[in-house]
Amino acid sequence: MKRRSLLTLGCAAALSGCSTVHDVAALIASQTADALSATPSDPTYLDWKGLLLVTDPDANDNTPIAFDIVFVRNRQALDRLRKLDAHAWFRARAEQQATYPGAMVVRSFELVPGQTLRLSESELDAPRVVGVLLYADYPDPGAHRITLPRSAPGAIVRFGLRDFTVTTYRFGSPT
Q1: pTM to 2 decimals?
Q2: Which residues contact 34 (CB under 8 A, 6 or more apart)?
Q3: Environment class of 159 (CB within 10 Å of its CB; exposed 0-12, middle 13-18, buried 19+)
Q4: In angstroms, rounded to a whole number, what is the distance separating the alpha carbons of residues 60 and 66?
Q5: What does the domain layout of the chain look like in residue ranges?
Q6: Does domain 50-174 have CATH number 3.80.30.20?
Q7: 9-38 confidence digits (pLDDT tens)
């Protein structure tokens, strides 16, 4: 009986190892395909280690700024969302999520002027994506939308008086 239990345990361990090997192989294949294609159609994992979000002291006329980071898993949804400015996004966010169920994960935040927020890889909890958009809810006219870089290990998002900028971050220094 002991021998049978050990054999069963050994088989279970081997099968779980195959799953792990398969997951690692799938991740490597996904990232390789992503590297060879400028606009991958299949969702891939981000290379991000984190985001640094910084608001200037006078950001948004010295009022809190709401923003959404939208992790998009579907190429059709990404193409549609890239056409929306921030005002349209915030007005129709629920409608977009209903139109493309399961195609996006939205992380909503709000920062006050002068505040800095560091989001680690685990806090972002990013799913596999075809693209990542950031919409900032500024009252002034403008797109206030950007596609965040997927291949950089990180980015610095700086919210200013009337708009925001993104700088990719590699190997300990901005690029």
Answers
A1: 0.72
A2: 40, 44, 150, 151
A3: buried
A4: 10
A5: 1-36, 50-174
A6: no
A7: 333 333 344 433 333 333 333 443 444 344
